[in-house]
Amino acid sequence: MTRGSTLPAHRLSHLSGRVAIPTLPEQTRNTPSAPWLEGFNTASAEEAHATLLSCLSSRHWARRVTAHRPYPTPDALLAASDEAAYDLSAGDLAEALAGEPLPALPADAYGAAHMALDAAHAAYEARFGHAFVLYLGDTPREETLDHILEAIRSRLTNDPDKEREVVAEELRRLARERLMTHFRGAGNGATRHDAPADGT
């Protein structure tokens, strides 16, 4: 199936094998003066905006979260992220989706699995006109393929309005996870939010 010029190219990403981080570490979550949070609060608007865009490619979302600084606690930042994500317009969603990589298979997945996933992605993009996004949460690595394929097939039955609601929720969850991952890494001296989980 040939995809139209408006559809994003398939991109394998680091999303497979990523493990959701339900909460920040206790000492970080409950410490208003966490160094990474102070750094985010005092960074220039341009720096904060760039950090946020690395978590979700929506300028509206990034501007809103940046504008509400300073945040007293990590939980307050995450709440602001959620609120801004719930308020994304159709255009904001399209912008965010254009920057999203596709959920990828584990590196050792067999060729037929890649073919099946590519065909499913193409069918989804042909129906909805944008890339498929999915929050993998704590899906075990060995269940990634089945989980992605099941989600695509299920969501292909949605009408466009319903799918926009699902997409918005998936993007909200992805943004929240990436924020937590980014700042947990910053607190440990790391700078990348997209490093693969150990063992992947």
Written account of the structure:
- The protein has a single domain (26-187), classed as Orthogonal Bundle (UraD-like), CATH 1.10.3330.
- It contains nine helices and no strands.
- The chain has helices spanning 26-29, 35-42, 45-53, 59-67, 74-86, 90-98, 111-128, 144-155, 160-187.
- Helix 5 packs antiparallel against helix 9 (160-187) and helix 7 runs parallel beside helix 8.
- The two termini are 31 Å apart.
- Mean pLDDT is 78; it is low at 1-33 and 187-200.
User: Which percent band covers the strand fraction?
Assistant: under 5%
Count the E strands. 0
pLDDT below 50 for ≥5 consecutive residues: which ranges?
1-33, 187-200
Q: How would you classify the quaternary structure?
A: single chain
CATH fold type: UraD-like
Shape: globular
Number of domains: 1
Number of helices: 9
H and E order: HHHHHHHHH
The chain-level structural class is mainly alpha
- What is the C-level CATH assignment? Mainly Alpha
The Cα radius of gyration reads 17 Å
How is the main sheet built?
A: none
Average pLDDT works out at 78
